[in-house]
Amino acid sequence: MIIDKQTDSLIICDHRNKRVVRWPHQNGTNGETIISNIGCLGLTMDDDGFLYIANYEKDEVQRYRIGDNQGTVVAGGHGQVNGLNQLSNTRYVVVDREHSIYISDYNNHRVMKWVKDAKQGIVVAGGQGEGNSLTQLLNPCEMVVDQSGTIFVADSGNHRIMRWSQEATQGSIIVGGNGQGNQSNQLSYPIGLSFDRDDNLYVSDQKNHRVQKFKTDRS
To answer: pTM of the entire structure?
Structure first.
């Protein structure tokens, strides 16, 4: 889900109904379907108002202008393998100010960056096969990318949150990494994360059915 500030509305990936819907932010009683028949898990919006949708059924990211029925493929769409122009089970997508997109490539255990108009992506986190070393990810989910290009990713299968600096060859653990569990220093298949203005990190701790808050240093 994202907030469209221009229209003061919520744009929601309605996964099970295979659609994207828009609801008024204030006192909304009726929503509208703006994109139908799409295998949507994650979405985001750029500064120009274009939607980017991670389509897990087609292993691609599509860009839509709101109101259009057809999107444009901007990443993937070449089969479900691990080539640099391919994705496998796309989950979440982030777009930066230069319109580069970052994709959690779930089954390939990596985060990919596609520069605007590129024909293939760049591995910016993971990509060394599934595993739990600092060079690896296991089923990455939601990401945050800051202005310096540092990536914070929910490394779901490893029950941890990782930080990857720009051009780094390995990441660092900032939360979790103490095995799967329900203690305060443990996670169980985290799927979502977000920071507030004070650098507090909020983690959607899926299998523990809770949201955890951590004080972090993002630098």
So the answer is: 0.93
